[in-house]
Structure formats: structure tokens, C-alpha cells
Design a protein that fits this description.
This protein is an alpha/beta fold. The chain is built from 21 helices and 31 strands. The strands form 8 sheets. Strands 12-11-8-6-7-14-15-23 form an 8-stranded mixed beta sheet, sandwiched between helices. A 7-stranded mixed beta sheet has the order 5-4-17-16-18-19-20, sandwiched between helices. Strands 21, 22, 24, 25 and 26 form a 5-stranded antiparallel beta sheet that branches. The structure holds 5'-O-[(S)-ethoxy(hydroxy)phosphoryl]adenosine. 5'-O-[(S)-ethoxy(hydroxy)phosphoryl]adenosine binds next to helix 12, strand 20 and strand 26.
């Protein structure tokens, strides 16, 4: 496939990093995972290893078989009955953690809410009852489109309590994206809010919801959380205020006992086609994987305050704000707004104020902090922090080192965690008390996980670059794509044999057996740690009246890691201009969401295509990155790229 970026190309750009950082002695002593033989034990019998974690959860009925089937059909804890909400809330609220703080929330304007596990239990019971009163129950899909407020967590857990399958849609997505996801899942209800705060501005979520709901006949009920005094229209019969439902709702609400392999949630993620995939997660296996990795990777103890800065609209928010930490009985921090509001030290002030001990964020955020200057974290007391994590994209060694020094005070280990929406749980990561880290490397597979590097033909690459591959299974792996079994098999289980999972990432393994993830090898662009399909952006571009044809590529970006650059040819009657470029960029923002908005739109009379009509993105990438053009012999019209290259160079020189 000449049009794809090969892992080898990525290899060239990777900095060789040879420093290693041993776990600090003080950390090793009390670490949750402290026995180095666990890697061998888990490898010898991964199923028993995972069963050990499942045994720490509360099951209504124990499983008959720990694992059944292979490849795409593999299922965990078959025959077991379990409820995720009971595990995340009830069992703590009924025990010693009843008065422990479950959740600390800060609104962007500065409000603080603290709930104990007992309080959280009250909330999820009442909201579960409210949902049941509206006729919702096991197997119904419920969309959640919310700002980062405590009610978002309540909404997820209340769905889990009654067996409804939640589908959280990131609050930064457009109404069209929301509509598509509601449609695909056939959601019966939507939980949203009047609005939310972002950088001091109102995000009118209910208005966006109403736009989406104009064409979603499956939605019967809309539940609206009153976040502020935001104006919003309520439709009689369909729309309900959350607080009114809660007033009338009963406590307790009996939990629905789910089969281990009943879906807990659907979460949409971008792929290589224009249509996002609804990744379906199980109940028992998912919870076991999220719980196990939370305990071991984040080393959580009862006095920890854990802050994962992701949004609940992403898998990181699902596994490491909600399900993993709450199943582990942790204290979680949730923040509504932007890291630079009101000032660029908001995160560090929060760490200081709330006594955060374990902090998990994304490389794109770390690069922004670096750029803002050392004085912001250096001016705050970060001495309570004891462990740091990153996720979402490869972290460049400079950002790793900065994070280590300025946030971690050179005393906190850093866990660089590789995983995906589909994997549900962290798969490649250091265990902070056991593994010496190298800046930029996600190090080793989690115990019980069989990760490797394969070449195109499926031959193992002991040292060097190739494709990341995972063999065997792990409990939190996805059950499949909602409504599209074939796409599931084709995308993930068909590159080599049917038992080897292909995540779509290139990677390299060094002499010590450490993994270095190089990024996507398919038509997915990782912008600020978020997956954006090139096809999705291209369809949004050609949806603009002026655009005849479009192609997008990812180019290195200082903060975002990768930024999107669009090439567009115009329909007759339209002339290139800065205003038009701005309008086209804005159009993509409206169609998908601000994260998909291209950095720039370059106009071209024609796009370089193969004789079979396929756009050669590789050449566009060469042009955008100012490289000598690669092989152009398969082009239908080689003159096209030369013209484009000249034009690009002229514009870049402006
Ligand atoms: C990338 C986010 C390098 C990778 C949890 C993967 C990473 C995609 C890392 C999944 C990491 C995630 N190092 N790359 N530590 N973590 N990625 O589904 O390309 O939003 O395939 O899940 O992010 O993104 P997703």
C-alpha cells in the first residue's frame, strides 16, 4: 500500500532516548504491584491471573467459564452475573468507605462539590429509579451529552444500575455528530444539560441537542441537568428537568443483574471510513480490566486523590475517571473547564488545593504547559503528587522530561500508558514500582497481556520496527462494533490470523524489549490524542458548497502532536481566498466538532491521484512537510504535484 505511512517512516523521526529512570526506592516499598515474578506467573497462566482480579469484584453469580472462544468471539467470565454500579458504588457505600470521599468536583467558575460514597449511592439510586419511571431498562440505549459535572457520572452509573447501555458523546462534538451517534445506537433517551462552561463562555448543550433531536425519532425522553442559569427551551412531554425527576425519585433502586457479556456501554470512535464505529464494551470483563489496571498502574491506596484530566466523552474518562477508580473505591477529581482558566496554573492550583496524589493527563496538555512556562507549576505546591501518567499519543522525550521535573519534582514515576477505545483497559505500560522507564517508551505489556511486533507478513520482529499486535485476550476487550460484526472482523482480526488483534499502530521494540509506539498506520489522525478519521473530515469538507474534492493529511504540530491540513479543489464559480478558507474550516467544525477543524486549507486546481483515482496522501504529506517528493510514477498526472508543490512553497514563504 504505497499510500500509507509505513512504520519505518515513523521510525526515522523517533528520537533515540537512552536514559532510564528507576522507580524511586520510597515508591517501591509500598507499591501495590511489587513482586517482579508476576510477569512470569501471569504469562504462564493469564486466565488465572485475570480471574484473581475478577474475584476481587462482587458478583451475583460466579462465572462458569473464565474465558470462551477466540479472536473476535472471545468472551470473558461466561455465565457470571454482575452489576457495574453495585461494584463502583454500593459495595463501598455499604462498607468501610461509606464516608470516604468518592468524588471532588470543581466547576470552571470555582464551585466545589464533594460526595462521599454514601452520597453517590443516594444519587445513583434515585436517578436509576427516575430512568425506570420513564420506562427505560435493560438493553435500552441512552445517549449522554454532558459537560464535566458530577451528574454526568451519576448518569453513567444509573444507566449501568438499570442495565441500560450508555453512549456518552463528547460535549465538544457538534449536533450532527450527536445526531449520527443517537441514530446509529437507536437511543431512546438523551441526558444533557442546559449548558456548561468552557473558558468563561457558555457551551449551549441543550440547544445543540435540540438541533440533533430534530431528526432522531427514536428519542422518547430528554433529561436536562440544570448546570447554570442558561436559557434553554423545554419541549412538553419529551423534556424533563433532572432535579424535578430526582425530587420525586425513589431510593433505593434495585440493580439489574447483568450477564457478564451484556453490554455496559457503547462509545463511538473514528475509523478509516466516514462513519464512526460504536465500540461495545462488556460488563464483567470490562470492569475487571479497568479495575485491575487502575489498581496496578496507578498504584491506588485508600488515601490517594486521583485526577485523570480526560473528558468522560472519551474512553479514558470511562475507564479511569469512572469505572476503574470507583470500582477500586478511590477518591476521584473531576474538573469542568479549561486548564488556562482563569489562569495558566489552574491544574496546579487544583492539585495543591485538593491534595492530588496521582495525576493522569495527555502529552498534548503537557506540551501546552511547557510552552506556557515553568513559572506556573513552579509557583504551586505539588509536593503531594507521587505518581504521574500520560495517555493518548506518543510522548516526546522533551515533554516527558519536563513533566518529570516540573510536575513530578523528579520524585514521581511516570506511567506512559498505551491502549485504545477498543481495548478498554491499559495494555502497555510500566508498573510504577517494578519497571525502570525510558522517556518516550510505554515500556512493557501489562502482566497477562501478550503484545508483540509483527511485520506485514506476520513474522515476529524481536528488535526493530513493525506493527503492534496483541495475541490472546484480555478481559476489557471490546465485544465488537455496534451493528457491524463484519467491520469488526475486517478492521481488527484480519491482518494476520484470526487470533491476533491489529490495533492500527506502528511500533518498535528495542534491545531491552521495550515498546516505542510510533502512531497510527491507517487513515486515522491523532489530533491532541483524539482520533479523527481522514474520511470523516474529507466528507465534511466536500459538504461545503465551494468544495469539489478534498484530501486531508496530518502534519507535525507543536502542541497537538499532529494537526490537520486540508487540500481542496473548488467547484466552478468559486475563487480561492482567505475568507473562503476560513469558512471551510468553520464548516468542518460545525459538522464534526472543533477538534476536527483543519489548521489550514490549501487550494489546489487538482489533487494528485493514481490512475485508479485514489488520492495519494503520501505525496501531499511530502509537500506539506517540505520533503523531496517520493515515487510519483503511479500518478495519473505528475504535473499536478509539481504545481501544488510550487504553490505550497510560495504560500509557506509568504
Ligand atoms: C494512541 C485512548 C502512544 C494510539 C486511550 C492508539 C498512544 C490511539 C498512547 C487510541 C501512548 C494511545 N503512546 N500512542 N501511550 N495511548 N495512543 O481510542 O495511536 O482514543 O491507537 O484511546 O491513541 O486512541 P483512543
Amino acid at each position: 500500500m504505497p499510500d500509507k505511512k509505513t512504520p519505518a517512516e515513523g521510525l526515522d523521526s523517533l528520537l533515540e532516548e537512552n536514559r532510564t529512570f528507576d522507580p524511586p526506592p520510597g515508591f517501591v516499598e509500598g507499591a501495590v504491584a511489587s513482586d517482579p515474578t508476576i510477569y512470569e506467573t501471569a504469562k504462564a497462566d493469564p486466565v488465572s491471573f485475570w480471574e484473581g482480579f475478577a474475584n476481587e469484584l462482587e458478583w451475583a453469580e460466579r462465572w462458569d467459564k473464565p474465558v470462551e472462544g477466540e479472536g473476535p468471539d472471545m468472551r470473558w467470565f461466561v455465565g457470571g452475573k454482575i452489576n457495574a454500579c453495585v461494584n463502583c458504588v454500593d459495595r463501598h457505600a455499604a462498607g468501610e468507605r461509606a464516608h470516604k470521599t468518592a468524588l471532588i468536583w470543581e466547576g470552571e467558575p470555582g464551585e466545589e462539590v464533594r460526595w462521599t460514597y454514601a452520597e453517590l449511592a443516594k444519587q445513583v439510586n434515585k436517578f436509576g429509579s427516575a430512568l425506570r419511571t420513564l420506562g427505560l431498562g435493560k438493553g435500552d440505549r441512552v445517549a449522554i451529552y454532558m459537560p464535566m459535572v458530577p451528574e454526568a457520572v451519576v448518569a453513567m452509573l444509573a444507566c449501568a444500575r438499570i442495565g441500560a447501555i450508555h453512549s456518552v458523546v463528547f460535549g465538544g462534538f457538534s449536533s450532527e455528530s450527536l445526531r449520527d451517534r443517537i441514530e446509529d445506537a437507536g437511543a431512546k433517551a438523551l441526558i444533557t444539560s442546559d449548558g456548561g462552561w468552557r473558558r468563561g463562555k457558555e457551551v449551549p448543550l441543550k440547544r445543540f441537542s435540540d438541533e440533533a433531536l430534530a431528526d432522531t425519532p427514536t428519542i422518547e425522553h430528554v433529561i436536562v441537568v440544570k448546570r447554570g442559569e442558561f436559557a434553554c427551551a423545554m419541549q412538553d412531554g419529551r423534556d424533563h428537568w433532572y432535579h424535578e425527576l430526582m425530587e420525586a425519585a425513589e431510593n433505593p433502586c434495585s440493580p439489574e443483574m447483568m450477564d457478564s457479556n451484556d453490554p455496559l456501554f457503547i462509545l463511538y470512535t473514528s475509523g478509516t471510513t466516514g462513519k464512526p464505529k460504536g465500540i461495545v464494551h462488556s460488563t464483567g470483563g470490562y470492569l475487571t480490566g479497568a479495575y485491575a489496571t487502575t489498581r496496578w498502574v496507578f498504584d491506588l491506596k485508600d488515601d490517594d486523590v486521583f485526577w485523570c484530566t480526560a473528558d468522560i466523552g472519551w474512553i479514558t474518562g470511562h475507564s479511569y475517571i469512572v469505572y476503574g477508580p470507583l470500582a477500586a473505591g478511590a477518591t476521584i477529581v473531576i474538573y469542568e473547564g479549561a486548564p488556562d482558566w482563569p489562569q495558566r496554573d489552574r491544574f496546579w492550583k487544583m492539585c495543591e488545593r485538593l491534595g492530588v496524589t496521582v495525576f493522569y493527563t495527555a502529552p498534548t496538555a503537557i506540551r501546552a504547559f511547557m510552552k506556557w512556562g515553568d513559572e506556573w507549576p513552579d509557583g504551586c505546591d505539588l509536593s503531594k503528587l507521587r505518581l504521574l501518567g500520560t495517555v493518548g499519543e506518543p510522548i516526546n522525550p522533551e515533554a516527558w522530561t519536563w513533566y518529570h521535573r516540573h510536575i513530578g519534582g523528579e520524585r514521581c514515576p511516570i506511567v506512559d500508558t498505551w491502549w485504545q477505545t477498543e481495548t478498554g483497559q491499559i495494555l502497555i505500560t510500566p508498573l510504577p514500582g517494578l519497571i525502570s522507564t525510558k522517556p518516550g517508551s510505554a515500556t512493557k505489556a501489562f502482566p497477562g497481556v501478550d503484545a508483540t511486533i509483527l511485520d506485514e507478513a506476520g513474522t515476529e520482529v524481536p528488535v526493530g520496527g513493525g506493527y503492534l499486535a496483541i495475541r490472546g485476550g484480555w478481559p476489557a476487550r471490546t465485544l465488537g462494533i455496534w451493528g457491524d460484526e463484519q467491520r469488526f472482523i475486517d478492521t481488527y482480526w484480519s491482518k494476520w490470523d484470526r487470533n491476533t488483534y491489529f490495533p492500527g499502530d506502528g511500533a518498535k521494540r528495542d534491545e531491552d524489549g521495550f515498546f516505542w509506539i510510533l502512531g497510527r498506520v491507517d487513515d486515522v489522525i491523532n489530533v491532541s490524542g483524539h482520533r479523527i478519521g481522514t474520511m470523516e473530515v474529507e466528507s465534511a469538507l466536500v459538504d461545503h458548497e465551494a468544495v469539489a474534492e478534498a484530501a486531508v493529511i496530518g502534519v507535525p504540530h507543536e502542541i497537538k502532536g499532529t494537526g490537520i491540513v486540508a487540500f481542496a479543489s473548488l467547484r466552478d464559480g468559486f475563487e480561492p481566498s482567505d475568507d473562503l478558507a476560513a469558512a471551510i474550516r468553520a464548516h468542518v467544525g460545525e459538522k464534526i466538532g472543533a477538534i476536527a477543524r483543519p489548521e489550514s486549507v490549501l487550494f489546489a486546481a487538482d489533487l494528485p491521484k493514481t490512475r485508479s483515482g485514489k488520492i495519494m496522501r503520501r505525496l501531499l504529506r511530502d509537500i506539506a512537510e517540505g520533503r523531496a517528493l517520493g515515487d510519483t510514477t503511479t500518478l495519473a498526472d505528475p504535473a499536478v504535484v509539481e504545481t501544488l508543490q510550487k504553490k505550497y512553497e510560495a504560500e509557506a514563504g509568504d
